[in-house]
Amino acid sequence: MRDLLIGLGFILAGIVTIVTAQKFPTLPSLQFGPSLFPSLIGGGFCIGGLALSLSQLNNIRLLISRCQDMGIKINAPRKLLTSLLPAALIVFYILSSDFLGTLLTMFIIMFSLMMIRKTRFLIAFSSSAILSAVIYFLFSHYLLIPLPQGTLFEGSL
Amino acid sequence: MDTFINGLNLVLTVDTLLVILAASLFGIFVGAVPGLTATMAVALLVPVTFYMDPTPAIAAIVATSAMAIFAGDIPGTYLNIPGTPASAAYVGESHMLARQGRAREALGINLVCSVFGGIFGTVVLIVVAQFLAEVALKFSAFEYFWLAILGLSCSIFISSGSKIKASLSLLFGLLLSTVGLDMMSGAPRFTFGVPDLMAGVNFIPVMIGMFALSELMKYYGSHSENKKVNMTSSDNVFSQVPVHVKKYWPNMLRGSSIGTLIGALPGAGADIAAWISYAVSKGKSKDKSQYGKGHIEGIVDASSANNSGISGAWVPALVFGIPGDSITAIVIGVLYMKGMNPGPTIFMDGSGLIYALFIVFILANLMMLPIGYMAIRLSKIFILTPSRVLMPIILCFCIVGAFAINNSMTDVWIMLIIGLISHLLISNDFPVAPAILGLVLGTTVENNFMSAMMRTGGDLTSFFARPISATLGIMVIFIWCSPLIMAIYKGYTQRSNV
Amino acid sequence: MKTTITSNMCKHLMVTGIVATFVFASGAALADYPERPITLVVPWAAGGGTDATARTIGRALEEQLGQTVNVVNRTGGSGVVGHTAMLNAAPDGYTIGLATGEVNMMHWLGLTDLTYEDFTPIGQINYDFPGVQVAADSPYESLEELVEAIRTEPKGTFTASGTGLGGVWHLAFAGFLMDQGIEADRVSWIPSEGAAPAMTELVSGGIDIVPSSVPEARSMIEAGKVKSFTVMSPERIPSFPNVPTLREEIGSDYQVGEWRGIAGPKGMPPEVVATLEEALEEAYKSDTYQDFMKQQGFGTEWRNAEEFGKFMAEMDQVFGNIVEQVGLAN
Known about the structure:
InterPro entries (chain B): DUF112_TM (IPR002823)
Distance between the termini of chain C: 53 Å
Number of domains of chain A: 2
Structural class of chain C: alpha/beta
Strand content of chain C: 15-25%
Order of helices and strands of chain C: HHEHEHEHEEHEHEHHEHEHHEH
CATH class of the largest domain in chain C: Alpha Beta
Shape of chain A: flat
Structural class of chain A: mainly alpha
Domain DUF112 (chain B): 17-437
Transmembrane segments (chain B): 20-46, 106-132, 144-161, 168-187, 199-221, 313-337, 352-376, 388-406, 412-442, 463-489
Number of helices of chain A: 7
Strand order of the largest sheet of chain C: 2-1-3-9-4-10
Low-confidence stretches of chain C: 1-30
Mean pLDDT of chain C: 86
Helix content of chain C: 40-55%
Largest sheet of chain A: none
Number of strands of chain C: 10
Radius of gyration of chain A: 24 Å
Number of helices of chain C: 13
Mean pLDDT of chain A: 83
Distance between the termini of chain A: 53 Å
Shape of chain C: globular
Radius of gyration of chain C: 21 Å
Number of strands of chain A: 0
Strand content of chain A: under 5%
Oligomer: heterotrimer
Order of helices and strands of chain A: HHHHHHH
Protein name (chain B): C4-dicarboxylate ABC transporter permease
Helix content of chain A: over 70%
CATH topology of the largest domain in chain C: D-Maltodextrin-Binding Protein, domain 2
Largest sheet of chain C: 6 strands, mixed
Keywords (chain B): Membrane, Transmembrane, Transmembrane helix
Largest interface: A-B, 65 and 60 residues
CATH architecture of the largest domain in chain C: 3-Layer(aba) Sandwich
Low-confidence stretches of chain A: none
């Protein structure tokens, strides 16, 4: 069932790619230009997606019987939610590091992730404090990466 | 001989040896941390080498890059997160071994092969550099096009499981490679008005997203704290090495030869080398069915190939000042800054610098054995640290690592979006390694194709007009037709048996 | 190490002291500039010629300003990414950049809206001129023969490469053809990622001409694989005394090349610009910078903030004209 949906997704992505690619300019000396490869890839998406979908349709009977087993996977939505946790925290970093600074943001990320998995408070607190400091100083002072310092402390680090 | 002794004197100073040691440790660290890669390590070294003498400066780069390429396999083995695109070819294999409790055995043979490959490449560099560079100069857009297609075909060929899914994954990578300013027309493609996307999608944030972030999401999606990889008392770094070397020494030679050759081509690097040699290994092996289930043989070929490729890339860099890969592109700049102008004169001047360089290569590769051994021993930290503590740390490294490529938040966004897409793909049994190769090779395929077409006015037959190009083209066609030929052959033999 | 730091500090105090007396009225915060490390954005990759130039001038600037100068590479998009990053920074003098000639090309090519008017010029430090390189086994023996062949053979017979489409060597070479009374697109331009890959194509017989700067062809010239007919500069390059200038070869005064200079975002305080300009001129004259550039064969040319601004405006028209003639205007 999911392969069928993903196959359809690829077909859709392929069509979008081909349509977008038609807007690219052409080269003066050749009939084809920058749109050639994206169009070929989009075509490949369509063919591959179709093949994937069709191979699923063949197994449609198998699918129906599998659908009846779906009852077991009732806790799936919750799992999906927790699996999105790292992604959500990355968004948090992108949005808040300019204000809070990398050091503090990393600490919050590590600490909250550890607490969610029921790490002992002391271990979680100390290890995230030490590690975020180590990572921050390693990158900003030794590897000279201009990590956001945060407007909260205005250059005091 | 005098120049050789001069060279020896240049290397055997406390300073240089200390630099090699420090650079090796730095390389191990950068390689072993998910999210940091060899090319980045070398780029980070540039400001530091500014303040060094030529010999230690080059020593630092050689030691760091060789070590980082090997160390990239450590998180690959334990966590299924490869450190470099060169190790993406066999990360599945080595992770399977780790799950069988053979992580150290896999890394041990990997280390020995890496050292062997690195030294093999260096010996080639010393003996036939000038000849090999002449051959490499015969390669033009037509040949690079076929070579890149060959690499892409290999990624489909070696994937286990659904070939449709592998192809779709490859196409996904190829599509990502078209983002940015098209070199041929100068037109921006799929940039959506974001200036940072003009530069295209860098493979490092993509790799972090595909492997590290999706692995993290898998962990937080499950509620089990059980480790997939466990320590077993019988697992030892070097005890199985003699057995494997005895059995697979031809593979080491074959992998190293392929690696050096491909590395020496200015348009192809260690990553294509690893994929092609892994594919050759699978194609020639007697135990094809074991590949992808935790089989040492493919690792032997590919890990020899990627380290010899690193050495091979120095061939065109030293002889003609043409970079063989992204690392030597940086190296050439450093060489110029140090007043060592790459080119034929570098082999002729009497200062012994070139010999110093060769000695540094050998030393840095030998240094990998003890330091690599230490790193493998220490890497049990990946097993001993509870996942609930380890995973948040990896997440932070991923964010900072993605940011550090260009000091840009755009790369963090790219990592996030690619991570979400690949999580969806991986949980539906899509292999993601082909996508990495697609991204790395996509521009090579397209630019060389377009460049060739612009020169010949759109004449497709020109891809078979030059001897090397025609040979490579026929190889590609053969690979794609071989399943068909095999089927016909089988049908024929069966019929004749009846 | 310590002594250099303290001597730097002394210089720093002196410079800021002098500046402080001049700008007393404009507030105490500015008088202390620079009080923290300065970021120097480079729009090209680590290890390349521009990067090396930036790191050298950065080091010389450090000596003058007494503050660390961090070089940050923001690469890709034919320079669009790096130049955009320079302009997006706060105009406080703590983020400056090494602007390159692409500023005069990108907006004509329709890649970006930013033009030279969005920058605060501080000073020009380098000017590199294109050469004309062909393979050693090329049938042509001089520039004159080559130009004559381009003139008489049909359009598209010759191919050249060395940068992307609309890159500096493409436009400079097209401008040269125009100067010779030949259509700008008579030689087909094969885009490449830079001079190095173009050199391999030249040697493997894929293309005919690489009009990159002469130092970029150094190793191939030394290997006897490539010959250089001319350099389009006012004088011969000291490290390549055998390569004649355009004037010596065919009597043309055509001079269009790649300039590099330090610039910041628009709206920088004049006091900060003055401090930087003064420090940059000293850095430019320093042995650190001059020795490095001489050794590399890179051209040095100084223009102060005002002249640099005028120069950018002038070159903008020149490149605008070439881009239109080549047919790339957008």
